[in-house]
Design a protein that fits this description.
This protein is an alpha/beta fold. The chain is about 40% helix and about 20% strand. The protein folds into two domains: about 1-270, Rossmann fold; about 295-355, Ubiquitin-like (UB roll) (Roll), CATH 3.10.20.30. The chain has helices spanning about 15-20, 45-55, 85-90, 115-150, 150-170, 180-190, 210-215, 235-240, 245-255, 260-275, 295-305, 305-310, 320-325, 330-335; strands at about 1-5, 35-40, 60, 65-70, 95-100, 200-205, 225-230, 275-280, 285-290, 310-320, 340, 350-355. The longest helix has about 35 residues, at about 115-150.
Length: about 350
């Protein structure tokens, strides 16, 4: 899974990126760079830790997420956003938009004042504009093709693109438009920015931490099925990331923060993308796997290896909770908690599975 991190200059996107990678920035907290940075992190999951403690395998393998810090969202750029800015974002599965909500004498706001809602609207308008340019070019090309040769496939695509155009002209993000299954397949190839799940991170001051829920409530009108808002003090989260685990717990308790930003961000991202985790366990390895919610057992087996999907026979399935309570797969089998499921079984979050296959 790829997630792009964007924000206006001095919004805190570099701080967020470095915090996620648990890597102290080389200089100031609002470091700026012209090139996109990439980093892969392990997805923390306490369930995997507990399964590892139970089975004591030779290795523990986390699910991973790749984060990309994408510079270039600058309202002072007279030429607009660069083609590279949009190219970097087109490939991501989700966009994190970092918005600053506090004053700083060292780092003045590029527009001269702190106005988070205005910053959000600027970013969203740039995403819409990018999509509109793609739509207009595609409509022109399809109409030329259809004048030469009438093609049912092109006609269906044109109708879908015209539907996108009407929505964009009304200022509506494509993620808020209803598309049927055929239209969604056509839409996927365009990688429209306004169709991607969006996580808005409001970067707040330390003094606002206790009121973070109230901060989020101010932006409830943005919340939707694939849009979420999270308030974080990235300066504090960066300091937390530098501490060892024991000191982290003490620091978090003092500040009234339930868990580090990394964990909350990943949970939000999983929810927005409709992702869940299942586990495989054993003496050799305990591992977390990421799949789309609603995926069946055979398709989930393919995430592990294509041979397992091709030769799928059935899956031994037990819930994470039952396995922890019984402390072994054997005990789960004796108590009838370990189930045999076929290829159409819909995998649930926290399932522990062993795939039986033959190729």
């Amino acid at each position: 899974m790829q997630t792009g991190i964007v924000g206006l200059p001095f919004s805190g996107k570099s701080t967020l990126f470095q915090t996620l990678l648990s890597n102290k920035p080389d200089s100031a907290e609002f470091k700026t760079k012209h090139l996109a940075e990439r980093g892969i992190i392990n997805v923390y999951d306490k369930r995997l830790d507990r399964l590892t403690a139970l089975f004591k395998p030779r290795s523990k393998v986390h699910a991973t997420i790749e984060y990309i810090r994408v510079p270039g969202l600058d309202p002072q750029n007279e030429n607009g956003m660069s083609p590279q800015f949009f190219a970097n974002l087109k490939t991501v599965d989700e966009i994190i938009l970092v918005i600053r909500d506090f004053e700083s004498e060292l780092y003045p706001h590029p527009l001269g004042k702190i106005d988070p809602r205005a910053d959000i609207e600027f970013a969203l308008s740039e995403f819409l504009l990018s999509d509109m340019l793609i739509v207009e070019k595609r409509i022109e090309r399809l109409e030329k093709q259809l004048k030469k040769i009438r093609n049912a496939t092109d006609e269906r695509e044109l109708q879908m693109i015209l539907k996108c155009q009407r929505a964009l002209e009304d200022g509506k993000a494509l993620r808020a438009v209803s598309f049927n299954d055929e239209e969604q397949k056509l839409l996927k190839g365009y990688q429209f920015l306004s169709s991607k799940p969006l996580l808005i991170v409001i970067n707040i001051a330390e003094s606002q931490i206790a009121d973070s829920k109230k901060v989020i409530e101010k932006y409830n009108d943005y919340q939707a099925e694939t849009v979420s808002v999270l308030a974080l003090c990235l300066k504090i989260e960066s300091e937390i990331a530098e501490l060892d685990e024991a000191d982290q717990e003490i620091f978090l308790a003092e500040l009234g923060i339930s868990e580090p930003a990394l964990h909350r961000l990943v949970k939000k991202s999983y929810d927005l993308l409709g992702l869940i985790s299942f586990f495989t366990v054993g003496e050799d390895e305990c591992r977390s796997w990421t799949i789309r919610r609603g995926m069946n057992a055979q398709k989930a087996a393919g995430v592990i290896h294509s041979d397992l999907e091709r030769g799928f026979i059935r899956a031994d399935v037990v819930t994470y909770k039952d396995l922890l309570e019984q402390a072994s797969l054997t005990a789960c089998r004796v108590k009838g908690l370990l189930r045999l499921e076929g290829k159409e079984y819909v995998v649930r979050d926290g399932d522990v599975m062993e795939i039986r296959f033959n190729v």
